[in-house]
Recover the amino acids of this structure.
């Protein structure tokens, strides 16, 4: 999920003062920020309502257990059929193959957006192990670029791309900090005139507007109820180093398998074969793993961490392995969605497994370090991985531990296959 191909934020021209360039950007950035957040919140609300119908209202009306094995298999297969139909018939086929798409990227044609959003919403509601981030960012980029070029044709297209990317990430995480980290990472190796903060100014305005809109309307929270770490010691540091590295190795397993699983589904060629079969496989995995291994995973992480000590090591190992396989299948067969949120669940389950095996390990250290390792392996987004691990812990003392734990984990993953393919189906490194 690299952002290397996303256009960087524009820099002030050398002949103009930064103030004269940056001030006119404030209003467009605010508009893009609010609009991006509203689209994200609308799709999220729609998918949640539909999820309630599919997994509660409908089975209750039929007198069937909403999370019985039969219902899980039926619903995931039906979701594959529905999403396959959208991809087959919608203009633009709901966007390019998501296996070769990361966060951001070149703008899609506006006609593609309705199909992409519909396919994403159906997957979110139907229990597919993918998050909303990639489709929402791609849709907001397409709309901001299209409308922005009409409203202000003199403004470089890359500006609208960067504003939409930052705004959506701010809305997704409920804070502009995540967007600042992602864009700063994208600017590495892309020098230009003006200071870093000049180049980040407009995207941060958009990210702030997106985050505030989400906070005001939805009150998002990444607090999963972990007991805070107040006084870290050498044992906590050792645990963080070991667990982050082990989780990175675990996450890399999916990266190595990804090209082969993707190629197997691509041999089926037609979306009305690929997606229903993928849905059936996801249904079988969900029936084996249970309801916690379904959906994007954030609410399920909170349920997982609400019963620390209540899960056996066997159950936690099953949750982590099945969710990893579900993410691998969902990303390979053509479902539209992102990998960050499922990877957080995988990391949380892996961390609680480590804590169950060695009860002396603090739960916040175990979960945050494992989430860090899995995200580093599956996204190669160093700052986002650190940020997510830190906010899950809700403990300032964890930040230093995670920074140190990221170093051996990064040595393990760097140069290895990513959970993203090039246009020829080969793993990016």
């Amino acid at each position: 999920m690299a952002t290397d191909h996303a256009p960087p934020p524009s820099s002030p021209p050398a002949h103009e003062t930064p103030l004269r360039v940056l001030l006119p950007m404030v209003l467009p950035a605010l508009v893009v920020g609010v609009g991006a957040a509203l689209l994200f919140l609308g799709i999220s609300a729609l998918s949640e309502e539909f999820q309630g119908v599919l997994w509660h209202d409908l089975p209750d009306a039929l007198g069937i257990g909403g999370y019985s094995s039969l219902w899980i298999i039926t619903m995931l297969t039906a979701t594959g059929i529905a999403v396959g139909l959208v991809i087959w018939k919608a203009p633009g086929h709901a966007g390019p193959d998501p296996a070769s798409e990361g966060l951001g990227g070149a703008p899609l044609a506006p006609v593609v957006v309705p199909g992409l959003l519909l396919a994403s919403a159906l997957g979110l509601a139907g229990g597919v192990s993918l998050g909303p981030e990639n489709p929402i960012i791609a849709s907001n980029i397409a709309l901001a670029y299209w409308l922005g070029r009409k409203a202000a044709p003199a403004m470089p297209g890359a500006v609208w791309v960067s504003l939409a990317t930052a705004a959506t990430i701010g809305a997704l995480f409920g804070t502009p900090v995540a967007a600042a980290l992602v864009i700063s990472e994208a600017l590495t190796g892309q020098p230009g005139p003006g200071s870093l903060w000049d180049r980040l100014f407009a995207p941060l305005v958009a990210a702030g507007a997106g985050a505030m809109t989400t906070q005001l309307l939805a009150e998002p929270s990444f607090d999963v109820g972990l007991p805070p770490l107040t006084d870290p010691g050498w044992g906590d540091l050792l645990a963080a180093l070991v667990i982050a590295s082990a989780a990175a190795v675990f996450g890399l397993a999916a990266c190595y398998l990804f090209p082969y699983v993707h190629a197997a589904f691509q041999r089926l060629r037609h979306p009305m074969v690929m997606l229903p079969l993928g849905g059936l496989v996801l249904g079988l995995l969900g029936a084996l793993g249970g309801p916690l291994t379904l959906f994007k995973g954030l609410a399920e992480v909170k349920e997982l961490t609400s019963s620390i000590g209540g899960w056996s090591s066997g159950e936690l190992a099953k949750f982590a392995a099945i969710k990893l396989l579900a993410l691998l299948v969902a990303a390979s067969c053509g479902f539209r969605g992102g990998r960050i949120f499922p990877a957080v669940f995988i990391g949380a389950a892996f961390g609680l497994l480590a804590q169950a095996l060695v009860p002396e390990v603090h739960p916040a250290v175990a979960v945050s370090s494992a989430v860090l390792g899995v995200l580093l392996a599956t996204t190669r987004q160093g700052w986002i991985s650190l940020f997510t691990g830190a906010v899950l812990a809700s403990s300032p003392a964890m930040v230093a531990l995670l920074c140190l734990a990221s170093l051996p984990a990064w040595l393990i993953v760097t140069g290895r296959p990513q959970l993203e393919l090039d246009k020829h189906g080969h793993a990016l490194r």
Summary: The longest helix spans residues 26-62. The mean pLDDT is 87.
